[in-house]
Backbone:
C-alpha cells in the first residue's frame, strides 16, 4: 500500500462546476496535510494546509480532513480553465525539530477544466 | 513574489561531469532546507534534508557521495550531482518552511537537469 494515494485521473470538469480531488494516506500518525498545484514543467505551489478534522476554506478552495478515515480532499468551486493542473496531496508524519519531518507526496491527480 | 530561488533553471551536461545547483531563501533565514527530485510523470521524492552548519540527512537509497549537499549559510543550500549519468536526469526542486514554526513548505522553481 502506498503511503499517499491519489486517483491519477485525468479528471475533467466543466468550467464553473465543482472539482473534487481525493487523497488517502496509510499512516495514522500523520500530522499535517497539504494540497499543492503543479503546472506542467513547473514546481509545486501551495494551495492549502490542514491539520484538524473538518473543513478549511480559502477562497474557492475547501480542504476536508477526516483522520478516522485517513482521508483528505480538496474541493474547487467555480472551476476555471486556469485551475487545469496536477494536484498533489502531501502528508507529513513527523515533527519539526525531531529529525523526522518529511513530506510524502501522492502521484497527483491531473485536472482539466473544460471551457 | 518568489521566496525561494534556484539556479540554474536548466542545465545540460555530459555524462561524468558534476553539476552544482543553488537554492536561496530570499526573505527568511532558513536553518533547514529540503531537496526533492521528480522524474517525468512521477511524484516528488525527498532526497535529503539540508541543515545549516551540519551534515545533511539523506533519505534511504540516496547516495550521499553522489549528491553532495552544502548548507553553508542561512540563505543558501547547494546540491552537487557528482559524476552525473543519464539516469540522474530529472527535475530537482528545493524547498524551505514558510517559517521556523510551521511544517508548510514553499518550493523553489526547480532545476531541470539533462545528462547526455
Residues:
Amino acid at each position: 500500500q502506498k503511503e499517499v494515494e491519489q486517483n491519477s485521473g485525468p479528471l475533467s470538469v466543466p468550467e464553473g462546476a465543482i472539482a473534487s480531488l481525493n487523497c488517502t494516506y496509510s499512516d495514522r500518525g500523520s500530522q499535517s496535510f497539504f494540497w499543492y498545484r503543479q503546472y506542467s514543467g513547473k514546481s509545486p505551489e501551495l494551495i492549502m494546509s490542514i491539520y484538524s478534522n473538518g473543513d478549511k476554506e480559502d477562497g474557492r478552495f475547501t480542504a476536508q480532513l477526516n483522520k478516522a478515515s485517513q482521508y483528505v480532499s480538496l474541493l474547487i468551486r467555480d472551476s476555471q480553465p486556469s485551475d487545469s493542473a496536477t494536484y498533489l496531496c502531501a502528508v507529513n508524519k513527523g515533527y519539526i525539530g525531531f529529525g523526522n519531518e518529511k513530506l510524502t507526496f501522492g502521484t497527483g491527480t491531473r485536472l482539466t477544466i473544460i471551457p | 513574489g518568489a521566496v525561494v530561488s534556484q539556479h540554474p533553471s536548466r542545465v545540460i551536461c555530459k555524462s561524468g561531469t558534476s553539476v552544482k545547483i543553488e537554492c536561496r531563501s530570499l526573505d527568511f533565514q532558513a536553518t533547514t532546507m529540503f531537496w526533492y527530485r521528480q522524474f517525468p510523470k512521477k511524484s516528488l521524492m525527498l532526497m535529503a534534508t539540508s541543515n545549516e552548519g551540519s551534515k545533511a540527512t539523506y533519505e534511504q537509497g540516496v547516495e550521499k557521495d553522489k549528491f553532495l549537499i552544502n548548507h553553508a549559510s542561512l540563505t543558501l543550500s547547494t546540491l552537487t550531482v557528482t559524476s552525473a549519468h543519464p539516469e540522474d536526469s530529472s527535475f530537482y526542486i528545493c524547498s524551505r518552511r514558510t517559517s521556523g514554526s510551521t511544517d508548510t513548505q514553499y518550493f523553489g522553481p526547480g532545476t531541470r537537469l539533462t545528462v547526455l
Observations:
- Chain A touches chain B at residues 31-32, 34, 36, 41-46, 49, 88, 92, 94-96, 99, 101-108 (CB under 8 Å).
